[in-house]
Amino acid sequence: MPIELPRTLSHAYLISGGSHTSRMDTALEFTRGYLCEHGIPPCGKCRACHKVTAGIHPDVTVLGPDDGKATISVDQARTMRSNAYIRPNEGRHKVYIIDPADALLPESQGALLQILEEGPAYAAFLLLTSEASLMLETIRSRCEPIVLPPDHEDTDPELLAKADNLATLLIQGDEFAVMKGFVALEQEKISTQELSDLLLLTEDFVSDHLPDTHPQKYLQAGRVLDALRTAREDAIYNLNPGLTLGRMAAQIFR
Ligand SMILES: [Zn+2]
Hints:
- This protein has 254 residues and is of the alpha/beta class.
- It is built from ten helices and five strands; from the N terminus they run E-H-H-E-H-E-H-E-H-E-H-H-H-H-H.
């Protein structure tokens, strides 16, 4: 789903949440916004838009860790900083996509503070991270935040399958199968974090099922969602999973 860009773009954004794919898609849409020959919203069809999409626009730089490294060195950050003071080749802007921005070492983040604060007017910075809190506060305060909705791209397929299965059983109101599923989770000693993730995914799947749910099942689905939410709060507050799942079952099948 294409993101709707603000009418006037700021010079720096911190794009967090979503999956890696949705963060990069968002960054590319912003980049087309900075460089499109027709302004905002970007047309997606002009030469500049095409070059951005194809990854060959000379005014776009993607900065990430060097091969085999996990972090972006202070040298890389300084090189990018100097490069930003050289005027654009063909566009109105020069766009720097830093992915993942949390790979910037603290001193690399420090090296970028000034350019984020008062860089040349044509320079734009898009910082991508799964979690905004991974960045130094001084960086966060210099960027406009864009928080993407969760999507399942990065999620463990096994957990996805479990959640999908649990959602189906819950909506069908199959008490026996749900109980069996809970016992299995208990036996594999699911951690509270995993349980919380599972319950959140299951909420998503139950909501996804809703449009094609038989009207008689609506009430049931509403109760399932309430119970899932309560159980997830329990899991977050580190109650034991058995108690959490038992409570959830009691709420649904009362
Ligand atoms: Zn365009």
